[in-house]
Amino acid sequence: MKSIAALQDLVTPWSDGLEPSDAELEAIEREMPLIEARVALLDAQIAVLDRVPSELDEQRIRRARRRMLAIRRDLTNQAAAAVGMPGGAA
């Protein structure tokens, strides 16, 4: 009987193309502030799943949502400027 490890090479052969390219890494780095802002919003929302949100909780959620939206707007405007849209997208 073949072991699972022996079958693994047949299912997913190793390829040098599995690593992200430099362009993909730069795109991830550029979007990292948005990713972090989304995680902060999710943390604030998860914290109040099992209880009634206090004023402080609501303020934390609003602040995280505003931060995420501001970062998304900035990234959209940067992308629009990169392709030459005058005045930005948002």
Structure, explained:
The chain has 90 residues and is an all-alpha fold. The chain contains 3 helices and no strands. It has helices at residues 4-11, 22-47, 55-82. Helix 2 packs antiparallel against helix 3. It is flat. The model has no long low-confidence stretch (mean pLDDT 86).
Tally of DSSP helical segments: 3
Largest sheet properties? none
Average pLDDT over all residues: 86
Unreliably modeled segments: none
* SSE string, helices as H and strands as E: HHH
Q: What sort of overall outline do the alpha carbons produce when their principal axes are compared?
A: flat
Helix percentage: 55-70%
Strand content: under 5%
Number of strands: 0
Protein structure class? mainly alpha
Query: If you compute it from the alpha carbons, what radius of gyration comes out, rounded to the nearest whole angstrom?
Result: 21 Å
Query: Could you tell me how far the N terminus lies from the C terminus, measured between alpha carbons in angstroms?
Result: 60 Å
